[in-house]
Specification:
- By secondary structure, the protein is of the alpha+beta class.
- The chain has one domain: Mago nashi protein (2-Layer Sandwich), CATH 3.30.1560.
- Strand 3 and strand 4 form a beta hairpin.
- The longest helix is centred in the last third of the chain and has 13 residues.
- The radius of gyration is 16 Å and the shape is flat.
């Protein structure tokens, strides 16, 4: 069975990249959905930097909400160094949005039903990128940098990308 690739591309607001980061509050968020995975079906990682602190909020829920899987739920937060946040923001800003856009195929279905979303900006303006099956043929789809940033954010959240993607 041949699967096409689907890349959903959303811009929440058209803002020049050089203006992102001129706020006292910056945000990077990652969302991952895998409808066939029981633990870690939904993962959400928010990385926030204020003028005083950088921190991460990590949430993960299993597909089944029963006593067998309750131990796999994650809802935690912790402090990050400002340098670590800045390095991640640099990775996200370097995602070649135009290249991804130029390689969007009109056909239909992703590889395995996963969806990876990265949003970045401040609390007023964000750029959002939603990639179907982010680890599927990243070179030919122009999503290599997206995948690398995605993996780094997963690591910050305490996940092993090889176990999630």
């Amino acid at each position: 069975m041949k699967f096409g690739s689907l890349i959903v591309f959303t811009i929440a607001f058209s803002l020049p990249l050089e203006l992102i980061g001129q706020s006292d509050y910056l945000r990077i968020s990652l969302e991952f959905q895998h409808p066939l995975r029981i633990p870690n079906e939904n993962i959400k990682i928010e990385l926030i930097q204020t003028s005083e602190i950088a921190y991460a909020e990590v949430k993960s829920t299993p597909l089944k909400d029963d006593s067998v899987w309750v131990h796999t739920k994650i809802d935690t937060s912790f402090q990050l160094s400002a340098g670590h946040f800045d390095r991640l923001m640099k990775l996200v800003k370097e995602i070649p949005i135009q290249e991804i856009y130029s390689k969007i195929e009109p056909s239909g279905f992703g590889h395995d039903g996963t969806t990876g979303i990265i949003k970045f900006g401040n609390f007023d303006y964000q750029i959002a990128m939603s990639i179907w099956s982010p680890d599927y043929k990243p070179k030919s789809r122009g999503t290599t940098e997206f995948l690398e940033a995605f993996k780094e954010i997963l690591k910050v959240g305490g996940f092993k990308p090889s176990k999630i993607l």
